[in-house]
Amino acid sequence: MGHCTSTKAEIKAVYKGLQLAKGMDIPKLWLQLDSRLVVDMLSGRVAWSMEHVPLLRKCMKLIQAREWETRITNCYQEANQVANKLVSMRVELHTGCNM
Fold first, then answer.
1. CA distance linking residue 37 with residue 47, whole number of Å
2. How far is the CA of 3 from the CAs of 9, 83, 98, in angstroms?
3. Sign of CA pseudo-dihedral 58, 71, 44, 13
4. For the residues of 20-81, what is the DSSP string, one character each?
5. 74 to each of 17, 34, 40, 77, how far by Cα in Å?
6. pLDDT, tens digit (0-9, with 9 covering 90-100), for 66-92
7. Cβ(62)–Cβ(20) under 8 Å?
8. H-helix or E-strand containing 9?
9. Phi and psi dihedrals of 68, rounded to 5?
10. Spatial contact of 56 and 10, defined as CB atoms under 8 Å apart
11. What value does the mean pLDDT take over residues 4-19?
12. Alpha-carbon span 94 to 73, nearest angstrom
């Protein structure tokens, strides 16, 4: 996700996932994130920092689209082991991923 904080990387990943799901015409989407902070920001329980406002607005525009149903929940990092392993492999290969 380029050089950024883990929070910003998580938000970028959410946005990219939303775009992919939207492009695939998925009618119902369940986002499970291991970042409680990002879940709380997307759910409106935590104020957004100025750094994240533009990207969070893009996410919210997709989440609130009328033609599909979305659900956002938190999961423990242990439940997200496959995603974490893929990220580790990407880092070890020293390849970049930018949005």
1. 10
2. 9, 19, 9
3. negative
4. HHHHTT-SEEEEEES-HHHHHHHTTSSPPPTTTHHHHHHHHHHHT-TTSEEEEEE--GGGGH
5. 16, 6, 9, 9
6. 888 989 999 866 656 665 566 566 555
7. no
8. helix 6-23
9. -150, 165
10. no
11. 89
12. 31
Q: Which residues contact residue 33 at a Cβ distance below 8 angstroms, ignoring those fewer than 6 apart?
A: 10, 14, 39, 72, 73, 74, 75
Q: What is the pTM of this model?
A: 0.74
Instruction: Please give the structure tokens belonging to residue 35.
Output: 């970042």
Amino acid at 41: M
Between vectors from CA 79 to CA 20 and to CA 87, what angle results, nearest 5°?
A: 55
The answer as to CATH 3.30.420.10 being correct for domain 6-92 is yes
Q: Which token pair is 66?
A: 């009328």
The overall average pLDDT reported for the chain is 82
Identity of the amino acid at 10:
E
d(CA 18, CA 21): 5
> Could you count the other beta carbons within 10 Å of the beta carbon of residue 2?
10
